[in-house]
Design brief:
208 residues, 6 strands, two-stranded antiparallel ribbon, 8 helices, 31% helix, four-stranded parallel beta sheet, alpha/beta, globular
């Protein structure tokens, strides 16, 4: 986005957002869809604390599931996976009811070939996070078939071979419907646990 959400110049914007009870949806993690090498640091989820400290409700896109950034809480600024930094935000008591994660792109192949942080596995496993997750489409990327590969999902146990066949048929008809159906179908490998229906409905805490 080319915007530093921790910049003090955003304060007036955050104050007005809080006054109007608006929700901030912000990119999180590494950006792959466009050339943005000089701005990757701005995807650090910890930079969103400034908005949160103003009482603004924040949705972190993609749960910051790709790439590394500086751990701003450490003196040495050690490079840390963005998803781990996102989970830290989610675990901070003072931000309960303020910070949320958005799950678009979580099933795309570029998330599956890099298992560092295991974001897809973790969001399925961590039931304590589910009430603070919301669904998004990441349109038009679900329609880019190079990013959507169901075979690895079968290999790692998120869907069955039969489910893959049906999902692939849906993809040929409507990639956005496929994206929704895939997220509703996939399970934590080796279990029957999946994302609850509430993730795909209006979130009472957000009004969206």
């Amino acid at each position: 986005m080319g915007i530093d959400p921790s910049d003090e110049r955003c304060d007036a914007f955050y104050q007005k957002m809080k006054e109007l009870d608006l929700v901030l949806l912000s990119h999180g993690g590494e950006e792959k869809a466009v050339e943005a090498s000089e701005d990757q640091r701005l995807g650090n989820p910890l930079l969103l604390r400034r908005a949160l400290d103003h009482g603004v409700k924040v949705i972190v896109a993609h749960c910051a599931g790709l790439g590394n950034n500086q751990d701003l809480d450490r003196a040495d600024r050690k490079a840390t996976h963005n998803f781990a930094l996102f989970l830290r935000l989610m675990s901070e008591k003072k931000y309960e009811g303020l910070v949320f994660g958005e799950i678009s792109a979580m099933t795309q192949f570029n998330r599956l070939v890099n298992w560092i942080g295991k974001p897809l596995h973790t969001i399925l496993e961590r039931e304590d996070l589910h009430e603070r997750l919301v669904n998004g489409s990441d349109y038009p990327l679900p329609a880019v078939n190079a990013l959507v590969r169901t075979r690895p999902l079968v290999k790692h146990g998120y869907i069955t071979k039969e489910e893959r066949e049906h999902l692939n048929e849906i993809y040929d008809y409507n990639p956005l419907l496929f994206d929704f159906a895939l997220k509703r179908t996939m399970k934590l490998p080796g279990t029957e646990r999946r994302l609850p229906a509430a993730v795909f409905m209006t979130n009472a805490s957000l009004g969206v």
